[in-house]
Amino acid sequence: MKAILITFDQAYYERIVTMLEKNNCRGFTAWQQVQGRGSSDGEPHYGSHAWPSLASAIITMVEDSRVERILSILHEMDVATPKLGLRAFTWNIEQTI
Length: 97
Fold this sequence. Notes:
With 97 residues, the protein is of the alpha+beta class. The protein has a single domain (2-92), classed as Alpha-Beta Plaits (2-Layer Sandwich). It has helices at residues 13-22, 64-80, and strands spanning 2-9, 29-34, 55-62, 86-92. The chain is globular.
């Protein structure tokens, strides 16, 4: 099992939740108002007067067999609208309770 942390412009929220549902990834935790700035390009998401947009984040635990498909779909979304900013990070889950 892997954790996927997805950080994205708030405009993506419904699309990402729908994509997770369609790929049988039922459980997730979401943060609606996250601030940040990409490491190489894209607009900052600070929620300020100068940079009014905000980001969101979702973490989901996914069976290994689904990870590549999820990352591929997220990559396609990012390529289609690169200025919005979308990143995904994965790591192994050792145990759950």
